[in-house]
Amino acid sequence: MRAEGTVEAFRKAESLVAQRRPLEALRALGPVLDEAPDKPSVQLLAGRAYLFSAQFQRAELAFLRVIELDPSDHYARLVLGRTLQRQGRLSEAHTQVRLATTMYPDPAYQEVLGEIRAHIARVNASE
What we know:
Blueprint: H1 3-18, H2 22-35, H3 40-52, H4 56-69, H5 74-86, H6 90-103, H7 107-126
């Protein structure tokens, strides 16, 4: 695929994810993933599409790949935490979101961290 085609496919996939059309986004992103599997932006977009389509294991792998390529990516840690939370892996989710919040102390991140802590407290109280 030519560079212009790769960029165009990536932009189309971004637009589809923004429209919450993740399966279409993954189809558009397929050639980009083949062409540039080690680009954090490509893996992050794929992870978001997987997350939005409830393909949690694939999302987790994509976000882990982003973190492997760029350990300072706070957003990848946040969405990895969300993905783990959706799988019921609250302790692991807490760790990733806490790291993301430490790296980027945004109120939205802190809200997610509070939500996970509350969920853990509810689970512990019911045991």
